[in-house]
Amino acid sequence: MRDTGEPTESRAGVTYRTMDLVVAAILMVVGAIVMKNSYDLGAGWSPTGPESGYFPFYIGLLILVSSTMTLLITFFTRKPDRTPFVEREPFFRILQVLIPSIIFVLAIRYIGIYVAGGLFIAFFMWWLGKYSLIKVVMVGVLIPLVLFLTFEVWFLVPLPKGPVESFLGY
Q1: Is the domain of 53 the same as that of 96?
Q2: What predicted TM-score, i.e. pTM, was given to this entire model?
Q3: What are the CA-CA distances from residue 122 to residues 119, 138, 139, 162 (Å)?
Q4: Which of 76, 103, 124 finishes a domain?
Q5: Range of 65's domain?
Q6: CA gap 125, 142 in Å, rounded
Q7: Domain count across the chain
């Protein structure tokens, strides 16, 4: 098989056309949900003026109509944009940050923001930054400690806590 320089869907992964269709479909659902919830609140006009769902209803309608048009234009165009939305290599670099970030957000619920934040910082310093273990441990412990003192002790701002903070009486 000869390489023509044109990206193919099998090599390119996701194309702009595919992303346009997916995002348009998601926004159609969002627009419909906004319209339904606004209608439930009251999307009409009362004797005292617009009901609480009046303007959000029409914003949802605008989102639904515009995303439907985008979907139809993208789907029925004669020359769809099949250039790659993202190549495989950059996509995997994005996943290197996205997946640990999702794990971090989920971990906050179970181990608290300070411990999860320390582990998150330490993990990236070790994995992507290739820092020495002593630096990783120092920063992974000191940054959450400073944040804990700042928010919990001095500013008295409660943030999600885990078992370590509960053990310390916070």
Answers
A1: no
A2: 0.64
A3: 5, 9, 7, 18
A4: 76
A5: 9-76
A6: 14
A7: 2
Same domain for 20 and 53, yes or no, is: yes
Q: Which residues, 6 or more positions from 141, have their beta carbon under 8 angstroms from its beta carbon?
A: 118
**In 3-state terms, the chain is what percent helix, strand and coil (to 5)?**
70, 5, 25
Closest CA to 144 of 166, 127, 164: 164
Tell me the pairing of strands 49-50 and 45-46.
antiparallel
Alpha-carbon distance 111 to 160, whole Å? 9
Per-residue pLDDT tens for 70-124? 999 999 999 988 899 988 888 899 999 999 999 999 999 999 999 999 999 999 9
pLDDT tens, 42-63? Answer: 999 899 999 999 999 999 999 9
How far is 99 from 114, CA to CA, in rounded Å? 19
